[in-house]
Design a protein that fits this description.
16 helices
């Protein structure tokens, strides 16, 4: 413990930031000095359960928040509101003194500096609780909102949520969980919120739709080119189960784009282009990304052509942890990536994540170790090794360690096992 106590607060804080929450709590309890340094990290996230069946238990805690008697609200930087269970109307009748929504609103307003809010609305939420949450977001100017519709929402939420504006980042998921009319109304409301957030820099969309039909919302529904308004400075865009077309309308807001994540792209004749068309458009429009996140089986020649067309890519994530089937070209694409592309982008690359789900040229080995070793600015490296736990693969594991030793800035090395035996289930 004396070695920890000798560390300056700045270094101790960096140590704490690398720990998981459970270990951070243990560190916080070590002594008063360490408590003072890391307490804000341990207590920066606050969870509030508005589930009907738990309101009597939660009520006292909310009143303590509202009174300011709990010190941990001073450290709250991120708030998560969720509904842990569904109950009948009789189970959550108003309390004898104050309605739950009033106590909830007073507790939320006691949080002075909470820029991030994650909300899991529920179809069983009553309108008063919903209004309390939205009033808090508007009054406290929550800048970063994540909302997940997995459990549905109150029928009035698409209309009430229109009060939100001036968000810096917006992330929403599972629009498909709303009934058809509700999903349509919510899509319109979210597009209006985006339009009313002229300084938005980050947008993440996961509709949850699995079929490539016009029922699935398109990027055009959320990014409309209103020429009388200046373009939004969107730097980070994440698209999952979205129909996306990069044309004059959407590109109007994407000229400042720095990072792009695309997964489960939905291709349709209207507003749903193929990925190779996206990469061609970005190359032709000279939009140079610094970070790309894509399913490994969807890496194609168009993407490789795009990568070698400019300098400045810092992060590549090619991940097939969902175990999608790849095309026969996946092997030659990997060979071209390591032979022709990686050497040309090696000087700027800081994060490389390669996670195939099956044996092949994307796995780490003698054929690509030299190309990876040339990426001397890498800070994070994730590779897959065939039968990593087997004795016959230990030379490859040792080769990886030798390769990592040539990367002076590397501080995070992750190895993933790929089995030669087909995995079922």
């Amino acid at each position: 413990m004396s070695s920890l106590l000798s560390l300056p607060p700045e270094i101790l804080t960096q140590v704490a930031e690398k720990l998981v929450p459970r270990d951070n709590r243990s560190l916080r309890l070590a002594c008063r000095y360490i408590t003072g340094v890391v307490e804000s990290l341990c207590l920066c996230t606050l969870w509030i359960d508005v589930g009907p069946g738990n309101r009597r238990r939660v009520l006292a805690k909310l009143k303590d928040f509202a009174s300011g008697s709990l010190s941990n609200i001073e450290y709250a930087q991120e708030l998560t509101i969720y509904n842990s269970e569904t109950a009948t109307q009789a189970e959550f009748a108003p309390t004898a003194d104050e309605p739950f929504s009033v106590v909830l609103f007073n507790a939320l307003m006691a949080l002075k500096r909470v820029p991030k809010l994650t909300w899991w609305p529920d179809k069983s939420d009553d309108a008063f609780v919903q209004s309390a949450i939205l009033d808090f977001m508007c009054r406290r100017r929550v800048a970063h909102l994540t909302i997940n519709f997995y459990c549905g929402c109150h029928p009035s939420l698409p209309f009430r949520i229109l009060c939100l504006e001036n968000l810096e980042s917006l992330s929403f998921r599972n629009l498909c969980r709303l009934h058809e009319e509700g999903a349509s109304f919510m899509t319109l409301s979210l597009s209006r919120i985006i339009c009313n957030s002229p300084n938005m820099t980050s947008l993440s969309i996961d509709t949850g739709y699995r079929n490539a039909t016009t029922e699935a919302p398109s990027l055009h529904r959320f990014l409309s080119a209103e020429i009388e308004r200046p373009p939004m400075p969107i730097k980070h865009l994440s698209l999952r189960t979205v129909r996306a077309l990069l044309d004059e309308d959407t590109l109007y807001h994407l000229r400042s784009l720095e990072s792009l994540s695309v997964h489960f792209n939905l291709t349709t004749p209207l507003h749903g282009s193929h990925l190779n068309e996206m990469w061609d458009t970005l190359r032709e429009e000279s939009i140079h990304l610094s970070a790309i996140d894509l399913n490994l089986v969807e890496v194609d020649d168009a993407l490789l052509d795009y990568l070698v067309s400019y300098r400045g890519i810092r992060k590549l994530v090619f991940d097939n942890s969902y175990k999608l089937w790849g095309s026969p070209e996946i092997g030659p694409i990997a060979v071209r990536f390591f032979k022709d592309v990686l050497p040309k982008i090696s000087s700027t690359l800081e994060v490389l994540h390669l996670e195939p789900s099956s044996v092949g040229a994307w796995c780490f080995g003698h054929d690509n170790a030299e190309a990876i070793a040339k990426c001397t600015n890498l800070r994070e490296l994730t590779v897959s090794i065939v039968d990593m736990v087997q004795d016959h693969s230990q030379p490859i594991v040792e080769l990886l360690h030798q390769t990592a030793a040539k990367l002076p800035h590397l501080h995070n090395l992750r190895k993933i096992n790929v089995s030669t035996v087909p995995q079922i289930g």
